[in-house]
Amino acid sequence: MPHYAVICRDKPGALQTRLDNRDAHLAHLRDSGLVFVAGPLIEEGEMRGSIVILETPDLATAQDWADNDPYGKAGLFASVEVIEWKKVIG
User: Fold this and answer.
1) Which long-range contacts (CB under 8 A, 24 or more apart) does 59-68 make?
2) What percent of the chain has pLDDT over 90?
C-alpha cells in the first residue's frame, strides 16, 4: 500500500492551540488505523509542526485524513502538504 507524508507547519505563536487540541489530535492518529509513523517538528525546543506518514490506498484518502485532523480544524497550521512518500530504509 502506498505511503503519503502529511507535512504541517504551525502558525507562529500557536503553541497554545497545539496544546489545547493535542489529545484530540493523538486520538485521530491512533484511531484512524492509517498512521505508519508520526511526530512533531521541534524548533528552538518547541513543537512547531507535524510530520505524519500515512499508509493509505490513495492520495484522496490521505488528503481526507489531513482535512479531518483536529489540529487543522482548530486553525493551528499555516500550511499543510500531502505528498506521496517512498520508504527506502528502515
Assistant:
1) 59/4, 59/84, 61/34, 62/4, 62/6, 62/34, 65/6, 65/32, 65/34, 66/6, 66/8, 68/28
2) 98
